[in-house]
Amino acid sequence: MDTRRSEQAGEATRADIRAQGGSLAPGRVVGDGRYRLLAQFGVDERAAAHLWRARDGQLKRDVALTLLVGDPADPEAARQARRTLERAAHASKFGHGGVARVLDVLSLGSGVTSSEGLLGVVVAEWTKGSDLVDLVAQRPVAPAAAARMVQALAEAVDHAHQNGLVLGLDHPQRLRLTPSGALKLAFPGPLPDATLRDDVKALGAVLYLLLTGRWALPGGPPAIPAAPLTPQGHIVPPRTLVPAVPPELSSLAVRTIEDGGNGGIRTSSAILRVLDQVAEAEERTQLIKAVGEAGTTEADGTIWTTKKPVKDVARRRKLAFGVTVLVVATVVILAWGGLMLINLFQGDSKASGPTINVAAPSSTAAPPSNSAAPPPSSPAAPKIGQPVDPKSATIYNPKGSGDNSGRVKNVIDGDPGTVWRTDQYQQQLPVLKPGVGFVVQFDDPVNLAQVKIAADSPGTKVEIRSADSKNPQLDDTKVVGTGDLNGTDTTIDLQQPTESQYFVVWITQLGKDDKGNYLSEIGDVSFLPAG
């Protein structure tokens, strides 16, 4: 019943906002007769803020207006408006290419009259470009372009937070895409209770919006569908909706938006680090394409491209060739020098003097009394019993969403031909997360001594960890064995037999495919106890 009343109250509030803003129409003049409204670009109903493009009659230029609509007789509405205007005035001293410059702040009695039905106006420079909502309504943005757009916006947030400012960009209609392909906060005016954390979550929500066309925060515009949720109430990762989204970007969006768990991202600087890594990987990919496709143009309609000019590519190729020649020459010189030294020492040994004949000892001679004793034998390895079948296998990934959870059962089905593989990553672990793997559970505790892994995934490094539960924190598990999967069959002997009901097979380094992507796959795992 309380939820229904809350929803009804919300609908009533939105209806009041629409009614109060109904008198706002193109041609109307506000702000003490100075600004003529041209076109409306959205409504942030959380703050009763109407977003307009207007014409400054005095300076003869277009501006962006954030009109705070409300009843001056409502003390709570007036208080919230004053707080928003104070924050906007404070932001007027902040300068960054990712935020429209605040030109003026008008309040009741100072540029705004009570008869206008407004509680205040934030005036900002007009941002040329396109509407973000219109952009994502056509189709999701290419992942590389989305990373570039959010990167520019994240730099603005990071700079603002260093100066103690909250930008308030957690509404997509407040943002615009500039002709250069960067996102910009076009309608400043943070909510009265907005925090630094809200700005960071907004970056994740904007990335999610670009990748999927869905908005993942409350209070979004009706024109944009809300992000779907899992039965547990978590946001569905972008990669689930759009498989072409790289795992790094998908995980970054979810971890930035959601508050729960230890794997969340809380600062804009952390977002920038990941976006920089994704951008560098994309630049390398585009450079490789440019070498083979110099002079061609993009045909997929991508908004942003990182392709280098042909001249730059040619210069890089010449530099790479020169470095290669230098390395080869150095190796040849070192090899020649080594051969000369070998010949020198061999020549000295042949001319060192007369040959000395040493008589062979008699077969009956007793061994010398001071002969060394045989080395002590190493401790006997534990006897190995027959493999024990686990009860279940589930994905284990405490720092993000799991990889191919539907196929993890393949690792214990006894058939090496059915495999489980990780997602494809553009960076090696642990750039985005410390590792990925799965946890196996036995019916009863087993005294494990050895693990055999069937996998054709060279370069993969794994740890065998003991655990006390099915879903432990990584720090609560203990490494009991390690191994490199450089062959089709790998045997990992535990440091000593370990008894537990739960064991984690934890990948700390991924293999690499022929396209340069990082991934690993495992066909089957056998668990052998001490005999």
Describe the structure.
By secondary structure, this protein is α+β, with helices and mostly antiparallel strands. Helix content is 30%, strand content 24%. It has nine helices and 18 strands. It has helices spanning 2-20, 75-91, 132-138, 143-162, 196-212, 238-241, 247-257, 268-292, 310-350, and strands at 29-30, 35-44, 49-56, 61-69, 102-108, 111-112, 118-125, 130-131, 175-177, 183-185, 392-396, 420-421, 436-454, 460-467, 478-485, 489-509, 521-522, 524-529. The chain has a seven-stranded mixed β-sheet, with helices on one face. A hairpin with a 5-residue loop joins strand 9 and strand 10. Residues 1-21, 295-314 and 347-374 have low confidence and may be disordered.
Order of helices and strands: HEEEEHEEEEHHEEHHHHHEEEEEEEE
Total DSSP E strands:
18
The fraction of residues in strands falls at 15-25%
Structural class by helix and strand composition:
alpha+beta
Report how far apart the termini are.
62 Å
Uncertain runs are: 1-21, 295-314, 347-374
Shape: elongated
- Helical stretch tally: 9
User: In order across it, which strands form the biggest sheet?
Assistant: 1-2-3-4-7-5-6
Helical content class: 25-40%
Give the radius of gyration: 33 Å
Mean pLDDT: 80
The description of the largest β-sheet is: 7 strands, mixed
